[in-house]
Amino acid sequence: MRLEEQSAAVRDAVPVEYADLVVSVTELGGTTLLMLLLAVLFWCVDRRRSALVISYAIAGLALLLSLKALFALPRPPEDAMLIALEREREGYGFPSGHAFAAAVVYGGLVSAFDRARDPRALLAAGVMVALVSLSRVVLGVHYLGDVIVGAALGVGFVVAMDRLTRGDPTIGFAVALALSVPAIALAGGRGDALLGLGGSIGGLLSSLRLSALPALRSRLEGVALVVLGGSFVGVVQTVESAVASIEPLVAALYAILVAGIFFVPAAVGRLEIGVLESRRT
């Protein structure tokens, strides 16, 4: 079922000299980069559609943690790894979280931005998902079956969320909150489960005020949003590292993180600086 022999063939096809490149590719499906991508799109492109995909990502994370805990299948043995990556040894191996997350976020963006009939958008999303998925196999932290199932589940999850939410981020975060409860129960109060719980609460409350956020006034204001928002995210991550052992505080910080992403535009919008108020042409 997990295609162990085929996975070994994929691993053997990539020499260790390309390890750094493979690690860079795998980060395209990591939680940090995907959330940063969605935050930048929220600040600079389209608030409602980006918020919708953020809700998909958080809801998907909660669902995936529950599935991993239910299947409880191990990762490949340590000697299968391309290079030593200690943090990649944690958790269960089936289905692949990176493959699932890549399908949910990149596929969710295609759907939310109404590009599902655009062959170029579909191809781009498909290539990203395939690259992330294969990188997990090459690194030796998943079998080929893990990433195939993860990617397929991600696509199915996007389709289901599209129908459930009908484009409403508030519904998406409500679904995320509902899914985070069994995730906490099954996977325990570790980082990703707390992100699902805290992020869904912060997103749910913040999405109620989404329509009140000011529109982007200029390209320069977009730069200011990225700088201020990125700094805010960095501060929250620093605090999170300091209180990592206190689960309620970690969940609260994740709620603040997602709420902060939503309300950075409101903070910058209050700045009456002429150059920021120049409308885009």
UniProtKB/TrEMBL annotation:
Keyword Transmembrane: yes
SUPFAM superfamilies xref list: Acid phosphatase/Vanadium-dependent haloperoxidase (SSF48317)
Keywords: Membrane, Transmembrane, Transmembrane helix
Source organism, top-level taxon: Archaea
Membrane-spanning segments: 21-44, 51-71, 91-109, 121-141, 147-164, 171-187, 193-210, 222-239, 251-271
Domain Phosphatidic acid phosphatase type 2/haloperoxidase, first and last residues per copy: 50-162
A Pfam family of this chain: PAP2
Keyword Membrane tagged: yes
InterPro entries reported in the protein's UniProt record: PAP2/HPO, PAP2/HPO_sf
Listed name of the protein: Phosphoesterase PA-phosphatase-like protein
Organism: Natrinema versiforme JCM 10478
